[in-house]
Amino acid sequence: MGAMIEACGLHKQFRTPVVKEGRFAGFRTLFTKEYRLKEAVKDINFTIEKGDFVGYIGPNGAGKSTTIKMLTGILHPSSGEVKINGVDPHKHRRQVAKKLGVVFGQRSQLWWDLPVKDSYDILAHMYKVSASEKEKRLDELGELLDLREFWETPVRKLSLGQRMRADIAASMLHDPDVLFLDEPTIGLDVTAKRSIRGFLKTLNSEFGKTILLTTHDMDDIEQLCERVMVINHGELSYEGTIEHLREKIGLPTVIRIVFRGSYRLPASDSSGLPIQLNLDTEGSYRIVEASGSEVLIEANRQQVKAMDILRTVGGWGEVADIHMEEPDFEEIIHRVY
Ligand SMILES: Nc1ncnc2c1ncn2[C@@H]1O[C@H](COP(=O)(O)OP(=O)(O)OP(=O)(O)O)[C@@H](O)[C@H]1O
């Protein structure tokens, strides 16, 4: 294992001319000396190891694309450094491009009017992939991504799901070590999303690709990424596992208990649910709802151990079934933004 992607003290400022108001505004703007500085990325630091699958999330305009552009060498940082497998992507763009695959969900890198396979021929030529290598890889990718069914179809006639599969295959043609994926499931239906996610998982776990995924789809993140980085106003506001993020935000876990036969809640004579109750240990929980044989409890898992809850509810009656629901990830993310 080693660092595959490194960002160190990364900054990016955009200088945009201040637009003048009033008569001849456009003309005066041309000669203006006034600029407004927009700090899109402010002191970002992270390391992504070989074989990691990391989510990069944040609200619109947070600085995700700007970061990705610096990582791929398209944009030069105002200050700070980027290394892809130890190499600066801006200084050695060609060398680094061979290591990188990039997919923009909103924009295809394929030739719109050409059959899918022709785009691959052009890309293979651009990336200096030999004919035999290309055939071998397309055999593999064709099978994994089910490309054969639309091999001869012009790109503009593909469904969005097919187009996305074709684009991912295109980004893999030169067998890069690192993949940058920007909204690879955007606009897809549930089935197409599932197939793309399945494929990305395979790329990571079986082919060892290092993947950085930008998305607004929280299911993508939850199902694919071990780690997330949250960017907000150009700064990383969180970096770590999804579990830890859950704990940090401290949204309650919902515990659903089904009793066999009668049970007795600690404050069952009071009708004013929810009730805040304290456990013997320092944690607390709330009874949110009790109807029929079912009782819903909310507890913060950071403070309350599952065993304490079990012991407590066991004292109320005979427990037939117990089910814990972790807080919804989407909700957690909203709290971080
Ligand atoms: N070329 C540019 N010139 C001036 N400002 C820019 C430029 N590119 C981006 N910005 C500004 O920098 C900020 C970050 O933009 P960026 O595109 O990185 O956000 P993002 O997180 O990718 O957003 P989204 O989720 O909407 O794609 C925004 O305020 C944007 O307006």
UniProtKB/TrEMBL annotation:
Keyword check for Methyltransferase: no
Pfam families linked to this entry: ABC_tran
Record keyword Secreted present: no
Protein known as: ABC transporter ATP-binding protein
GO function term, MF aspect, one: ATP hydrolysis activity
Native source organism of the sequence: Paenibacillus albilobatus
Keywords: ATP-binding, Nucleotide-binding, Transport
Domain spans labelled ABC transporter: 25-258
